[in-house]
């Protein structure tokens, strides 16, 4: 397994693999890999012959005051995990390789509607940064299949829409969230939590499960369900950023006709922002 740092080197390596008739898979990441990322790599390995994992903490998707500087960078450990799982190539560019003229005048990819509200509401410009870097990474590698985690539910919806609208010749695949035994969704940001906060964190997923159970039990006073659940999160010591029920397919607001739903949440524990979601059918 090689680690390459330039676009030209990666293009040359992928083109050799293609000449050998291999199907190319890709898993874009920001590194600090955990079992959730490794599951994405395993899925790509099952579906393709040559898997490229990118590791790039993309400055364009971080807002002012967010954790760009403190985001964990653990390339050596990440390389070992990727070698063990059988990935073929790591692409770890620098910011100047990705944005040689800086980000100011850089072309941006914006995906309206689906980027609005939820994380897009709390993190202005975030999804533009994600869509821009993911389209660059897909254009650099040219994979047949790219795999993303469903923990970032809105991100996956944004990327699917972008790939569809821009006619990108890639199949975008989601992979279910990998969780700790107590239900907490695995995330690089869990490493910021103190022991006390880590003990509280699983309440986020439990709250989403309670909301799903209430809707499945026939309640349709959605705003009241959300108000009560937000209060439970606050009582547990979290500061809810958003909590919302949406149509699972297009993230539109729910009505009584919506059959497939998703409940999504972001909440702060101290300064750490955790996100999670739960898809469910009404019956
Ligand atoms: O989900 C992530 O880790 C990032 O948002 C992604 C998709 C790698 C883009 O930087």
UniProtKB/TrEMBL annotation:
Active site residues according to the UniProt entry: 37 (proton donor)
Record-annotated membrane-spanning stretches: none
Chief site of localization: cytoplasm
Enzyme Commission number, as recorded: 6.3.2.1
UniProt pathway annotation: Cofactor biosynthesis; (R)-pantothenate biosynthesis; (R)-pantothenate from (R)-pantoate and beta-alanine: step 1/1
Subcellular location: Cytoplasm
Sequence positions that bind ATP: 30-37, 149-152, 178, 186-189
Pfam families xrefs: Pantoate_ligase
An MF annotation (GO) of this entry: ATP binding
UniProt keyword terms in alphabetical order: ATP-binding, Cytoplasm, Ligase, Nucleotide-binding, Pantothenate biosynthesis
Gene3D superfamilies membership: HUPs, Pantoate-beta-alanine ligase, C-terminal domain
Signal peptide residue numbers: none
UniProt binding sites for (R)-pantoate: 61, 155
Stored InterPro entries: Cyt_trans-like, Pantoate_ligase, Pantoate_ligase_C, Rossmann-like_a/b/a_fold
Binding site for beta-alanine: 61
UniProt key word Ligase: yes
Gene Ontology CC: cytosol
Reaction equations catalysed: (R)-pantoate + beta-alanine + ATP = (R)-pantothenate + AMP + diphosphate + H(+)
GO biological process terms held by the UniProt record: pantothenate biosynthetic process
PANTHER family for this protein: CYTIDYLATE KINASE/PANTOATE-BETA-ALANINE LIGASE, PANTOATE--BETA-ALANINE LIGASE
Subunit description: Homodimer.
Summary of the function given for this chain in its UniProt record: Catalyzes the condensation of pantoate with beta-alanine in an ATP-dependent reaction via a pantoyl-adenylate intermediate.
Additional note from the record: The reaction proceeds by a bi uni uni bi ping pong mechanism.
Family of this protein: Belongs to the pantothenate synthetase family.
Name by which UniProt lists this protein: Pantothenate synthetase
Organism for this UniProt entry: Halopseudomonas oceani
């Amino acid at each position: 397994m090689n680690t390459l740092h330039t676009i030209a080197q990666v293009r040359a390596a992928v083109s050799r693999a293609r000449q050998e008739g291999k199907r190319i898979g890709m898993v874009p990441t920001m590194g600090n890999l955990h079992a959730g990322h490794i599951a994405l790599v395993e899925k790509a390995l099952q579906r393709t012959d040559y898997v490229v994992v990118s590791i790039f903490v993309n400055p364009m998707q971080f807002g002012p005051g967010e954790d760009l500087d403190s985001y964990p960078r653990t390339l050596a450990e990440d390389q070992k995990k990727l070698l063990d799982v059988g990935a073929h190539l790591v692409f770890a560019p620098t910011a100047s390789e990705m944005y040689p003229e800086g980000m100011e005048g850089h072309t941006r990819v914006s995906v309206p509607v689906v980027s609005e509200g939820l994380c897009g509401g709390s993190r202005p410009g975030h999804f533009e940064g994600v869509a821009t870097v993911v389209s660059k990474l897909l254009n650099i590698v040219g994979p047949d299949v790219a795999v993303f985690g469903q923990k970032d539910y809105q991100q996956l919806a944004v990327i699917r829409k972008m790939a569809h609208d821009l006619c990108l010749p890639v199949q975008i695949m989601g992979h279910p969230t990998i969780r700790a035994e107590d239900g907490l969704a695995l995330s690089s940001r869990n490493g910021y939590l103190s022991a006390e906060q880590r003990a509280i964190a699983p309440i986020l997923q439990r709250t989403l499960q309670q909301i799903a159970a209430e809707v499945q039990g026939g309640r349709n006073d959605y705003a009241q369900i959300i108000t009560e659940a937000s209060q439970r999160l606050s009582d547990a010591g979290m500061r809810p950023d958003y909590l919302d029920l949406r149509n699972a397919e297009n993230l539109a607001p729910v009505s009584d006709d919506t059959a497939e739903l998703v409940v999504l949440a972001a909440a702060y524990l101290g300064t750490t922002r955790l996100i999670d979601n739960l898809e469910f059918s009404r019956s």
